[in-house]
Structures are given as structure tokens and as C-alpha cells.
Design brief:
Chain A has 13 helices and 17 strands. In chain A, helix 2 packs antiparallel against helix 3. The longest helix of chain A has 20 residues. The two termini of chain A are 41 Å apart. In chain B, helix 7 links the parallel strand 12 and strand 13. In chain B, helix 3 runs parallel beside helix 4, helix 6 runs parallel beside helix 7 and helix 7 runs parallel beside helix 9. The longest helix of chain B has 14 residues. Chain B has a seven-stranded mixed beta sheet, sandwiched between helices. A seven-stranded mixed beta sheet of chain B has the order 9-8-11-10-12-13-14, sandwiched between helices.
Chain lengths: 381, 290
């Protein structure tokens, strides 16, 4: 789960990380009032679940409260990577002497949380990593002991040489690790970690991603979810326990299992079509899930044909058939439907479909070909 | 012959009285797996289906049944503990089916299981099956048939699809292994490839990967450097959109975006036959085994 910068900053602040003041505004007037309260030049930052905010014009400096109002008005009209900006963070501008990067992520290869630190922080950190990998220090953390003081010092010495900065930076790293592990993070990042002209070390930005699997046992963190910042169809899918990602094509795909769902999309493309979405109804399917899935798919006006690809294992294909029948009775389809199902309780499923005037195929390639033909206006293959 | 499980596998089920655990325990018994017992705290002394004894703890189950493998169906918040309990009880082969185990839990489980000397498969995996011998997990038994091809996959239902296509084409399997799709899992592609290379009955191997990470690329290099048996592969996610990435850390850490194109190229460069569609696996195998 993504959380906003201001939410990540609140968490980091709780762990003692030095974070500048800041308040959230949802209107230009609020932004103006906050800027007036701070009485200094402020930065107005879009709060949106997308990277590259700065480059998209979502981060701007404002010298006066009136400035803050007009800048906030501009930013609140933006859409960054398809996501509308609904909130801005207003924070006093800081004088910057240097910018560093620190981040922590769970690494597949070492099977541990791994720290990364670079003295070359800022917006182009990925380029730094690609072109000058020696400017990035990686350090895996033993989960049994956490980030020890000497490890934090090693990392901090990679960033700074002045002890006045090394010590506070080491402290920030330990605080960041604790914030990460105690809140079920899969990513925590400060970019940039800056030094001010007076020598202070301050976290100017904050990012945190929470492992979705942690949310059940962390209701306070789960409550940070901002549904207004997510794609509405993806919100609806999550509520129905479906994994859904909207794409631009015209063949709606409903599949059980992520791997098979991706392979189905690939096959749609292979046969000359374009998938409209990724949708995984998951393992133990019930008819309601199928109803919800169809509702989401049919709300996309681009969809010209719908393809079910179900390989029953844990998923019972008769559950899926019942779901399809129920959904169609509630809401007759306006586009053609191709059903491929095989596996657990296949005979029952086929019977249910037949009784309701539907038919099913057993071969994946044939079903995909047919769906593509229907979506592109050609005759069924 | 086969890898990891065979006729001699003596299996217990952790979470045997739960909804998923009991359903699949029955299926495994029907398939012919030697299911020697189960564990559900508080239900010790009862019997499953009037046959398999249920114990309160894994250590008791091992003492009384001589189990050498376990399969875990407990809910996500308790799965990490179940894996560690099994390793601590000395079970050499642990399969965790549970989906949704927090990844930070796995950073603790993995070194613990390693230190105890056990092999972990999963979590979030369909388990494995050595057709005609033993099924551990949830792979439907009737889509498999005994034969000379080993299969290892990160996916669940996509594995079924490929196995089903193979079985329809009369290409049987030594063992089908689903390693699971979580970021941290117990057994990776390379360990399975290594086991298949050493298994006398396996003549060729199918490897099914997905976008994300670099495991498939490393496995492809292993094939070229360490394997004599032919390997063919498929990668799902050629049309997957790049995710809305938030931080930079993911790309920095792996130095790779983990795209399907990247993985397929690694396959090609290292002599792993690349299937464009799942069905193409069949032809590639036929050619490789000629």
C-alpha cells in the first residue's frame, strides 16, 4: 500500500527523524493560510501516489502566502500519471548545502532488508545508480539484531566526513530502520536527506510503502489508505478481493491466478488483440467475486469482448459459472462473452452454463483467438 | 525417480482441521500420498477422516509418526511461526501453501530454517507433485502423468496450464514444483534445476517464470554453466504494464527492471528454449528430447 509523503513524514517524525514543519491543504485558500502561519518562503508539494512529481510540475516554491495560493491552485488541478492531485503539503523551504539519498527495501537476492546510501541524492538517483554504482553503498541488515550503531556509522561515513553530520545521520538511519520494521514497510526512503548551511541534517522528503500483507495486523497503518488517491476501479476491485489493473485495450480478461492472467494477456496480444485489463479473481473463488469482476470490466467502455480463462484447482469452475449466470441476469451484457474453463467441477460448470444459454471452451488458445476476433469486429475464429 | 518427494515421503499437514487444510488433506490421501498425521493446537488426540492422528505440536507429530515432510495451510499471521516450528522439530522438507505471509516475517524465517538444515518450499506456492508417487500441496493430480520431464514454476494456475498441455501431448513429468511468487521464498529456480540435473529419471526441464526480479536470469546462466539436460522456458507478463513505482530503491537494488523481454533474452542467450505461448512448451520439449 502506498502512503502519502505527509503520512510517511508523520511516521518518521514519531521515530525522531528531523523533518521540517508542514501541513496539508486541500484548497488554495488553506495553502495560503498555512503559508501565512509559517511566515516564510514555502514549498508546495503534490500528494499523489506517483514518482516524478517534481518533473510533472507538482512541486513548487512560493515566496508569499498569495504565491502559495496560486501555486497550490495550479498543482491541485494537475493529474500526475493518471492520478488527480487532491492534496498538497505546504512546508517551509529549506536552504540546502548538500543532498544525499538513503533508502531501505526488502531485497529478493539477499532475502533481507537492505540499506542503500548515496552522497549523490536528489531527483536523478536512479541515473547515479546506473552510471556510477560505486556512489551507492548497499548494506543488508540482519533481522535478528536490526541496524547496529556501528553499521549506521559505516553508512553515515559514506555520506559525510564531518562528525557533526555523521553522528546525526547515523541516528537517522537507525530511526529509519525502526520505522520501517515496526510499521511493516516494504520500502522506506529519504530523498533527499539534506544538510543545511548551518550543518543540520534534515529529511526533506519521505516515502514509504507498506507490505499489503501487514495491513490485517496493523489497523492504524491500514487506516492511512487514501482511496481518493487511487483509481476508482482498482478500489472497487480491492474491496471485492480481486487484483485489477486497468489497461488500454479492448479485450476484458477475467482469470484465476496472476501467472495465468498475465499469460492470457500475452496470448491476447499474440493473436493480435489488446488486453483491457489484468484481473485475477484469486484462489478460492465464490460467485460474488465473479459478479464483482464482471461489473468492473463492463464499466470500461473500451471493452468490446470479455474473456474468462479459468483453470480450476482450488477455484471451483462451477462457482465461476454460477457467478457468470448471476451477473448476466442482474445486468445483461452488451458485449460478447467467451468462456474457457477446465478443471475442478468442470462438468457441473458446463451444465450450469448450458442451462442458461451459454457455452464454454476447454482450449486456451482457441478461446483467446475467438475473443480477439469478436473484439476487433471480425468473425469468431 | 523424482525430486524432493516420492513414495517414501511421510507427510503431516499443519492446519489439518482448517477449511483449506482438511479439503486438500483429503485430496492428497486420495492421490496416494502417505499422509501420516496432522497438527492443530487443541485438537491433539483426534483423528482426521478416522485415519490420520492429530497432534497439538509438530514435535509430537514427528515423534509419533516419523514424518519427514510437512505441508502448511495455516492463516498468514501464524504461517511464519508454523514454518519455524516445523524446522525446529527437525522436519527436512517444509512446504508452505499459505498466501499473504508478510515479507518481513520471511526475512526471519528464511535464516532460521536454513540454520536448522531444512528445505522450505514457498510460501504462497501450490506445492509439488511427483506423479504416481506423492502429491504435497494443491496441484490437481489428474492433470499430471508420470514421465521424464521436470517442471519448476513461480506460478500456480499457469503451471497447471502447462502441465495440462504436456499431459495432453503425452509428455509425462518426474516432478512438478511450484516455488511460489513471493519476494522471499525458501527454494529458488536454481535449487530445483540442480535437483533435476541430478535426478536420473529427468531428461529435460521446463522453467516457467514471471516478470519481476532477476531469478530467471540467474537460473538461465546456471543452465548454461552447470547443466547438461535441456531446459525450455516460458515467461508470463510480456504485456504487463510497468507498475506505478513510488521509490527508486527497487530499480537500484536489482539493477534491473525484471521485464519479460529481459528474461526471455537471458533465456535465449543461455541456451534455454523460449516458448512464445504456453502451448509452445510442448514442441520445444519434443525437439529438445529427440
Amino acid at each position: 500500500m502506498n502512503i502519502h509523503e505527509y503520512q510517511a513524514k508523520e511516521i518518521f517524525r514519531k521515530y525522531g527523524i528531523p523533518i521540517p514543519l508542514g501541513e496539508v491543504a486541500t484548497t488554495p485558500e488553506e495553502a495560503e493560510a498555512i503559508a501565512r502561519k509559517f511566515g516564510t518562503t514555502v514549498v508546495v508539494k503534490a500528494q499523489v501516489h506517483a514518482g516524478g512529481r517534481g518533473k510533472a510540475g507538482g512541486v513548487k516554491l512560493a515566496r508569499t502566502p498569495e504565491d502559495a495560493k496560486s501555486v497550490a491552485a495550479q498543482i491541485l488541478k494537475l493529474t500526475i500519471k493518471d492520478l488527480p492531485v487532491k492534496k498538497v503539503l505546504v512546508t517551509p523551504a529549506a536552504d540546502i548545502a548538500s543532498e544525499a539519498y538513503v533508502g531501505i527495501i526488502v531485497d529478493r537476492a539477499s532475502k533481507r532488508a537492505v540499506f542503500m546510501a548515496s552522497p549523490a541524492g536528489g531527483i536523478d538517483i536512479e541515473e547515479v545508480a546506473a552510471k556510477t554504482p560505486d556512489k551507492i553503498l548497499r548494506h543488508p541488515v540482519d533481522p535478528r539484531y536490526g541496524l547496529q550503531a556501528f553499521e549506521a556509522m559505516q553508512l553515515a561515513f559514506f555520506l559525510y566526513s564531518d562528525m557533526k553530520q555523521v553522528r546525526p545521520a547515523a541516528k537517522v538511519l537507525q530511526q529509519l530502520y525502526t520505522a520501517f520494521s515496526e510499521n511493516g514497510g516494504s520500502l522506506a526512503e529519504i530523498n533527499p536527506l539534506v544538510t543545511t548551511p548551518t550543518g543540520d541534517v534534515v529529511a526533506l522528503d519521505a516515502k514509504m510503502v507498506i507490505d499489503d500483507n501487514e495491513l490485517d495486523r496493523r489497523p492504524d497503518i491500514a487506516a492511512l489508505r487514501d482511496e481518493s488517491a487511487e483509481d476508482p476501479s482498482e478500489v472497487e476491485a480491492r474491496k471485492a478481493n480481486l487484483t485489477f489493473i486497468k489497461l488500454d485495450g479492448n479485450v476484458g480478461c477475467i482469470v484465476n491466478g496472476a501467472g495465468l492472467a498475465m499469460a492470457t494477456m500475452d496470448l491476447v496480444k499474440y493473436y493480435g488483440g489488446d488486453p483491457a485489463n489484468f484481473l485475477d479473481i484469486g484462489g478460492s473463488s465464490n460467485p460474488e467475486k465473479v459478479v464483482a469482476a464482471l461489473k468492473i470490466i463492463t464499466s470500461d467502455p473500451n471493452v468490446k469482448a470479455i474473456l474468462f480463462n479459468i483453470f480450476g484447482g482450488i477455484t471451483r469452475t462451477d462457482d465461476v459459472a454460477n457467478g457468470i449466470v448471476t451477473a448476466i441476469k442482474q445486468n445483461p451484457l452488451k458485449v460478447p462473452l467467451v468462456i474457457r474453463l477446465t478443471g475442478t467441477n468442470e462438468e457441473i460448470a458446463v451444465k450450469i452454463l448450458k442451462e442458461n444459454g451459454l457455452s464454454a471452451m476447454t482450449d486456451m488458445d482457441e478461446a483467446v483467438k475467438k475473443a480477439v476476433a469478436l473484439a476487433t469486429g471480425g468473425k469468431a475464429a | 525417480m523424482s525430486i524432493f518427494v516420492d513414495k517414501g515421503t511421510r507427510l503431516i499437514v499443519q492446519g489439518i482441521t482448517g477449511r483449506d487444510g482438511s479439503f486438500h488433506a483429503k485430496q492428497m490421501m486420495e492421490y496416494g500420498t502417505q499422509l501420516v498425521g496432522g497438527v492443530t493446537p487443541g485438537k491433539g488426540g483426534q483423528k482426521f477422516e478416522g485415519k490420520a492422528p492429530i497432534f497439538n505440536t509438530v514435535v509430537e507429530a514427528v515423534k509419533n509418526t516419523g514424518a519427514n515432510a510437512t505441508v502448511i495451510y495455516v492463516p498468514p499471521p501464524f504461517a511464519a511461526d508454523a514454518m519455524m516450528e516445523a524446522a525446529d522439530a527437525g522436519i527436512p522438507f517444509i512446504v508452505c501453501i499459505t498466501e499473504g505471509v508478510p515479507v518481513l516475517d520471511m526475512t526471519r524465517v528464511y535464516p532460521f530454517v536454513k540454520e536448522k538444515g531444512s528445505r522450505l518450499l514457498g510460501p504462497n506456492c501450490p506445492g509439488l507433485i511427483s506423479p504416481g508417487q506423492s502429491k504435497v500441496g494443491i496441484i490437481p493430480g489428474r492433470i499430471c502423468t508420470p514421465g521424464p520431464v521436470g517442471l519448476v514454476s513461480r506460478s500456480g494456475t499457469l503451471t497447471y496450464e502447462v502441465v495440462y498441455q504436456m499431459t495432453r501431448a503425452k509428455i509425462g513429468q518426474t516432478t512438478c514444483v511450484g516455488i511460489g511468487g513471493d519476494p522471499i521464498n525458501g527454494t529458488n529456480f536454481i535449487e530445483c534445476l540442480h535437483a533435476f540435473e541430478n535426478d536420473r529419471a529427468t531428461e529435460a526441464v521446463v522453467m516457467i517464470g514471471e516478470i519481476g526480479g532477476t531469478d530467471e536470469q540467474e537460473a538461465a546462466r546456471f543452465v548454461r554453466e552447470k547443466m547438461k539436460k535441456p531446459v525450455v522456458g516460458f515467461i508470463a507478463g510480456q504485456t504487463a504494464p510497468p507498475g506505478r513505482r513510488m521509490g527508486h530503491a527497487g530499480a537500484i537494488i536489482s539493477g534491473s527492471a525484471g521485464t519479460a523481454a529481459e528474461k526471455m533474452q537471458a533465456f535465449e542467450e543461455n541456451g534455454v528454449g523460449v516458448a512464445k505461448r504456453p502451448i509452445d512448451v510442448v514442441d520445444l520439449l519434443k525437439r529438445a528430447m529427440r
